[in-house]
Amino acid sequence: MNSKILITYASQGGSTAGVASAIGQTLASTGAEVIVLPVKEVTNLDSYQAIVIGSAVHSGKWMPEALVFIQQHQNSLRRIPTAIFQVCLMLAANNEQYKTFVPDWLTPVRSQIRPAAEGSFAGALWPDQYSKFTEKLGLRIFLATIKLKAGDYRDWDEIQKWSEKVSALLLPKGIYG
Length: 177
Known about the structure:
Elements: E1 4-10, H1 15-28, E2 33-38, E3 50-58, E4 61-62, H2 64-72, H3 74-79, E5 82-87, H4 96-99, H5 102-105, H6 107-110, E6 117-121, E7 124-125, H7 133-145, E8 151-152, H8 156-170
Helix pairs in contact: 1-8
């Protein structure tokens, strides 16, 4: 029987969903059955041998639905091997001061579970995909503040390497199926 892995995430603009999908593809290449779903669509963790949880980070915080998911399922997440990842555009900024805050973003998660692995990845942002003028303007001001242009800053090689490491941590040899 193949191992079953859940990759679940909270994403606002789709960048984190894309990272979750890439992680899922890498883990599926091990022969495991991989399910990729938003946290709002997951109700039960009993059928999974490993779980990866990801969230977009906005204003230095994980998305509320990701934190609610962890709180609701913390007993299972303490029992099932779990890894976490976060995606934030600020990680693409060429400013080391921004990056000093990255570990703090994980504090609310670490207070509830002990992940086997943690990953932090730069994200993507396209203000024009938002419909409200105020959202577009706010995102453009944010980009100017961190001195970035709209675009995709995800490092797919870094994400794949992290996923391969996570595979070895969450699914020791011999339980692939």
